[in-house]
Every structure is written in structure tokens, then in C-alpha cells.
Specification:
- The complex is a heterodimer of chains A (115) and B (115).
- With 115 residues, chain A is mainly β.
- Helix content of chain A is 0%, strand content 52%.
- Chain A contains no helices and 11 strands.
- In chain A, strands 2, 4, 5, 6, 9, 10 and 11 form a 7-stranded mixed β-sheet that branches. Chain A has a 4-stranded antiparallel β-sheet with strand order 1-3-8-7, with no helix packed on it.
- Chain A is globular, with a radius of gyration of 14 Å.
- Helix content of chain B is 0%, strand content 50%.
- In chain B, the strands form 3 sheets. In chain B, strands 2, 5, 6, 10, 11 and 12 form a 6-stranded mixed β-sheet that branches. Chain B has a 4-stranded antiparallel β-sheet with strand order 3-9-8-7, with no helix packed on it. A two-stranded antiparallel ribbon of chain B has the order 1-4.
- Chain B starts with a strand and ends with a strand.
- The relative contact order of chain B is 0.34.
- Classes of the chains: A mainly beta (115), B mainly beta (115).
């Protein structure tokens, strides 16, 4: 099976712009999570989608939003970019079983630089 | 709220030797999952090992094993016979059952394996 893919891999934007990042999960996986990774704050959970619905949300401002399509692909959007939004954005997919735990498989990330 | 603390920002070890990475966490939950993730310089996050809190037995995966002390809220990772390919950032992570997609990460330990 192909792994989790994220596009684009690198992105440069300027303050005030908006950006959309894309994530394609492993085939058959219905849940997608997004994380922000920065040197200062480390890895922080943004949100998680399952069956086109946001199930969990981290502590980020409303400028950060996401959605999931019927084929489980997900996008996240950041509006009115700030310098502090520069980060590696990781997407992870997982199957949705009945167990209390499902392994998350991570993509390579999108490196966003805000100038 | 749950927190995960990794007190060793950087560590180094000689090839073929053994190294232990420390992790402590704080939670009021009785049932949860703990993980060690590896992030090599290429940035793809990989699950190394996981532990269910309700299991007494420490998890083992080949050269990787954990020392899980539930009462002390400690979860260390031991890497035996270290290899150059083990060079990476290692993240300790926590997740509540059914809280799908919401991993809480520590700040990470940068491990360098020296020839």
C-alpha cells in the first residue's frame, strides 16, 4: 500500500496570505489527524477528521481550519498567515476499527515558511 | 490535562552500545496508551513501540524495549546494540483510548549514534 502523501512538500508564503495543505491517507484509512511541529513548541495536535466530520480539535486559533472529503483525503487551511505559523505540518492517517487504539501513520510533512 | 516530559534534549551513544531515553508523563487517567516515535532526518515519523497502560508486561520490539512504571508515570526506551540508522529524534507520546488522533508529544530527544 502507498503511504500517507502530503502536498506540497515545501511552501513559502508572506504574512497575511492564506494557504491550503493537502493530505492523502493510506487506502482504507478513514481518519486523518494534523499536527504542527516547531522547534519551540514541538509537536502539537491541530485536529482530527473522520468520515468528513471533525472529531477532535487542539488549542489553535480559528485561522486554522480543515476538512475531509468523501474519499478521506483531507485539507487544512491557514488564513491570515503570521510569522509564527512557519512550521512543519504533519498529517497522519489511521484505520478506524473498534479497538480503543489504532496506529497512526505519518506523512513526510509540508514545510511552510512565512516571510 | 495530560503532559509528556522528555528531560534529555540530546544524547549520544557509540555504535553497538545500549542507550536509554527517559520520558515521564502526567495524567489522571487509568487507561491510556504510550508510544515512542522515531523521526529520522528525512522527517517521516515512524512508530517504534507502544505500551498499553493496563498491561503489566513491558513491550519489546527487536532491539527496542520499554521500562513502563505506571505508578511513577515513567516510560523509558532502551535501544540495544545501537546502529547508525538509529540516529534520529525520538518522541514519547501519550493518547487516551478512543481519543483517536490526538497524540500528546514530548519535546523529543535527539539521539546521535557515533561510529
Amino acid at each position: 500500500k502507498a503511504g500517507v502523501t502530503q502536498t506540497p512538500r515545501y511552501l513559502i508564503k508572506t504574512r497575511g496570505q492564506q494557504v491550503t495543505l493537502s493530505c492523502s491517507p493510506i487506502s482504507g484509512h478513514r481518519s486523518v489527524s494534523w499536527y504542527q511541529q516547531t522547534p519551540g513548541q514541538g509537536l502539537q495536535f491541530l485536529f482530527e477528521y473522520f468520515s468528513e466530520t471533525q472529531r477532535n480539535k487542539g488549542n489553535f486559533p480559528g485561522r486554522f481550519s480543515g476538512r475531509q472529503f468523501s474519499n478521506s483525503r483531507s485539507e487544512m487551511n491557514v488564513s491570515t498567515l503570521e510569522l509564527g505559523d512557519s512550521a512543519l505540518y504533519l498529517c497522519a492517517s489511521q484505520p478506524q476499527g473498534l479497538a480503543g487504539y489504532n496506529e497512526q501513520f505519518f506523512g513526510p510533512g509540508t514545510r511552510l515558511t512565512v516571510l | 490535562a495530560q503532559t509528556v516530559t522528555q528531560s534529555q534534549p540530546e544524547m549520544s551513544v557509540q555504535e553497538a552500545e545500549t542507550v536509554t531515553l527517559s520520558c515521564t508523563y502526567d495524567t489522571s487517567e487509568n487507561n491510556y496508551y504510550l508510544f515512542w516515535y522515531k523521526q529520522p532526518p528525512s522527517r517521516q515519523m515512524i512508530l517504534v513501540i507502544r505500551q498499553e497502560a493496563y498491561k503489566q508486561q513491558n513491550a519489546t520490539e527487536n532491539r527496542f524495549s520499554v521500562n513502563f512504571q505506571k505508578a511513577a508515570k515513567s516510560f523509558s526506551l532502551k535501544i540495544s546494540d545501537s546502529q547508525l540508522g538509529d540516529t534520529a529524534m525520538y518522541f514519547c507520546a501519550f493518547m487516551k483510548p478512543w481519543n483517536q488522533g490526538n497524540l500528546i508529544f514530548g519535546k523529543g530527544t535527539k539521539l546521535s549514534v557515533k561510529p
